[in-house]
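Troubleshooting log. The previous run stalled partway through. Resubmitting the same two chains, unchanged.
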Amino acid sequence: MSDGTVTPEPLSALSIGQRARIVSFTLEAGQRQRLLEMGVTTGIEVQIVRFAPLGDPIEIKVRGSHLSLRKNEAAGILVARA
Amino acid sequence: MSVSTPEIIRHVAIAGNPNCGKSTLFNALTGMRQKVGNYPGVTVEKKTGRFYGSHGETMNLLDLPGSYSLQIRSPDEAVARDVLLGRLDDTPRPDVIIAVVDASNLERNLYLVAQLLEMKIPLVLALNMVDMAEENGITVDVQALETALGVPVVPTVAKTGHGLVPLRQAVSKSPLATPTRRAPLPLVIEREAAQLAARLDVAEDVRFPEALLLLTLHEAALRDLGLPTALLQEVHAAQQRVRDASLDPTAAPVEARYAWIQGLCEKAVHKAGGPQLSLSDKLDAWLTHRFWGWAAFLFAMALMFFCIFTIAQYPMGLIDDASGALSDFVKAHLPDSDLRGLLTDGIIAGVGGVVVFLPQILILYFFLGILEDTGYMARAAFIMDRLMSRVGLHGKSFIPMLSSFACAIPGIMATRTIENRKDRLVTILVAPLMSCSARLPVYAIMIAVLMPMANAFQKAGVILSMYLVGIVAAFTMAWVFKKGLLKGETPMLLLELPPYRLPSWKTVALRMWERSGLFLRRAGTIILSLSILLWALATFPKPSDPKASSTEALETSAAGQMGHFIEPVIKPLGYDWKIGIGLIGSFAAREVFVSTMSIVYNVEGNDHEDTAPLRDTMQHEKRPDGSPVFTPLICIGLMVFYVLAMQCISTVAIVKRETNSWRWPLFQIGYMTALAWIGAFVVYQGGRLLGFH
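Second attempt completed without errors. Output:
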């Protein structure tokens, strides 16, 4: 885009190896708080590592550790591709 | 001078993330001087131990449950916070906290530390697994970390014991320094928390942390706390003022703490080289691979299952033989009397019935320990989560349910790894539906009566169908429970996949010892009492004729009378009161059905190996009207009954232990009995409708 902004998209839409920065959350307060406490905070970089053999959940790398999230949970995290 | 228990000088609590080596450190400090209890009203275990400070003083070490945060979202999660705020009557507020962090993963591990610092309790940081950090090219500047956090930092390698001496010294220091540094929070939050603190009716030094925790709690959890209305309104008002300042009270403090942590990690942590694939990453590429991941997973599960199922049989056989020998010994040396009966059929049988589970529990905990310590457990949950979440369960429910195929007791004990209370309860409730090995003797005799001429494949086919009935029932009931009875917010997966590590054999061994001890002491007492009770029911009242056969004796006993009593209820299933006695006897343990039936049909000297006499008798058994009692339809119906019914006092005892109440085991007995009745009814009446008999 010519103005340089990137549209935020759900984390679940990314493919393996892609990195992105967290922009916002559309999850309810309790779930969002859990994610924040695990270090998944706004502005931090996450990377998609792989999908489970059955396609779900997703393994991501954030702040140096690996977490797994279900696709429907990851859909509530909006990110901007790095 | 009299010898007395040494006075505890200091109360120490140990806290940390899961997978940071906290248990290993706890074990390294306390060795075998540990014990496990319960906190009232929750299923979380209270694990304490003794260790000695640098001057030999006795310290009490309390293992707080591993967590990523002190935030409370359920009664189980509130335990750590309650301990740290000194709210529990029989658990004193700790004098000092050992916060264990994984040196390779400092940023996230420090979040809990940031919250602990707000508790204003003296803190010592154990920077654990520094050896692994070094291997990965991560160096932590201990001095910089100490300065930034304002607390002593001790590098440790819990597995080898490195750093234990300085850790003991730091914890033994007198006086201990209260932390002065903590994460700066946004001004409006600091202000609101301070104001709220003034209104709290608690001890001075815990007011601010308590206020902060209330301020940052989201609506649902806040409501569940059951605060007095006035206080709740204050909290809401304070939260609203924070929102008016364009901040989210549930999110802003978390982000502020992480901002602080990030800043200090930038100065204190140095990672050599750019991003490289660690050994863990390379292993995962195989172990969670679309194809190889499955192969490895199935292999690991099959191996574990095989070991529990078959290897356990040897020691189990020995235990059976030993209790049989002991019984024979008693019979040979005591005259026939009630006392002898109590000893042999009540106590020895009861104790034998408890001890016989030990081999399976030990083997299961051996595997669970290795799976958990190496980090593979998380991968198993990761792989199976999609299947499990279809019925509302968690990926971590898989291994407990798989173990239940061997025996539900270790399976239910294994549900401890499931953090979410509702998921854990549902898994516990449905685990016994997975056909355990004790049902096999019942299947065997029924199949022998049903189809004596069948070959091995046909027999295996019938048994496999029974297993399938169990699996379908388990998943269906799990879905029902998650939808209806135990519904609540669907918890997130949010599972950490820790780096692969070599297991600590000492930790694995200690856990095996601890779990089996717990089983023997807690469940064992219940099982023994119930065994004695059932023996009494099957012995009293006695027939008036002292020369009555054992069959007649069984009929006049309470158990026999109960068999008659329930006959109307089991008639629609096609059973008579003799089968009724078998069902009642089986309440103790399923395999008792065979020996009970031997007594009922007066087949003397029956043992487990040779069921031919019993089989023949049952095949020829006829009703008053001449029709056979054990028709094929009845046999299958009876097998289905056994798949679905709760017939194991040992399971009842362990469920009571794990859920810390009688409510759930009683509910479980209720629903499973109902399910069994319905299942057998459907099979019998449905079959009759279709023209079978």
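Takeaways: The helical segments of chain A are 29-37, 71-74. Chain A has one domain: 9-81.
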